[in-house]
Amino acid sequence: MVTTLRSNAGDSELSQALRRAAVDYRKNVTANFGFQLPLIQEIETKTSICVSNVGDDEVAILSTLLGQRPFPNLTSLCIMDSSLEKRIGVVKLCRALASGSLPKLETLGISNSAMDDKDLLALAGALGSGRCSSLKHLSLGGDRDVFESRGASALAEVLASSEALPVLEELSVRGFEEEEGMLYIFHALEDRKVQQPGLNSLDFQNCHIRLGAASVLARALQFSPHLSGLIKLDLTGCRTMGDEEVTVLCQAFKSNNLQHLFCLSFANLSMGERGFLEIASVLEGGHLPSLHYFYAIDCPMTETGAKALIDAYRRNTSLVVEMVVDWPGFSYQSSAHFLMLRNEASVEQRQTGKNLLDADFSGGIRADVGDETRIAIFDEQKLHRSPSSVIFLLKKIRISRWKITKVLSSIKKVLGKKKSRFLLCIASLRSQRVISDHDRAQSSSVVS
Prior knowledge:
This protein is an alpha/beta fold. About 45% of the residues lie in helices and about 10% in strands.
């Protein structure tokens, strides 16, 4: 996942220095570009650069400096929340990327910076030059960026190549408002000639994906060897995706090519009951054995869909997926949570040979309590022992979303259209889970 798109104190200082340099340059106060040396010296000390809230002039100055001499220590370059409407910043950046002065660059991210299709064309040309062959993480586009089919076609040629980005692992492209553009991208994934290492993260948030594009993506997911190690697939906010598109993707999920998929997001789609039934079928059949997180908030959930997901937990005792969905009632949510915990304990028992539901984790056996209490004790005590399986290593610290349902409901009413992104941020938090007696009673009343 491209997680480097965040500012820190040092990067903020660099952004400020670039702004001062841009002001001096525009006023012609500093003769002979005297600002270059101190900026170059500062850049040389960095392995990662992330600038935000800057303009074309600042990005142009930074890019000019990066293209003047090699910077072999720089591995990450991110520009976010900036204004690149005049295009000079992107042009200079592309020259720097194509110059070969950044031979060790592994992460490139440009987001929410008012880019358009011409900028994407220029970036595709730079990425296709062969001078960015160390790139592992590529993130382009955001809420303020709008790309069309020409730029998508150029980027697709780069992605399909076996030479331009041979070690690319994570791809995030957002802002494609035409399905034709997504068809180009997905065909490139299908035709990509690089086998190993393959892509492990795909992020196409807020892109225009209909049945045609979804079908191509499904083929790529099902048959492409370079996607067999995929860990994350994020389609959040692709509102043109409905039940038909989800059904097509679920057929790919039933293949044996996605055995490592860990996180799947269908949040804020136009998916309804049929889509949830298809997903429940995939989960019940155990077709995604490594899946641990499924996000589908802001998708209308019916009682039929909720019952299907709960039945998947009940019938597949290896299913330990944490589902972040808009359950139609608290009883469904608590029931799903209870069954997930039961399955976690069952999986742990099969892996360790210990019946953790009977142990009180201090040496004794608790035969005097019911199943719902044992589940609660198991959940509470997970944090107080060493993890003995991948499940607890990954999930030992996690917030109990079923505990804060009422809070989230209130937040959703206030946030309106922006609720999806905010709730996904909440959903990614980790915290100790605490289960009250009231919650246990709710679980026991629903799950028999």
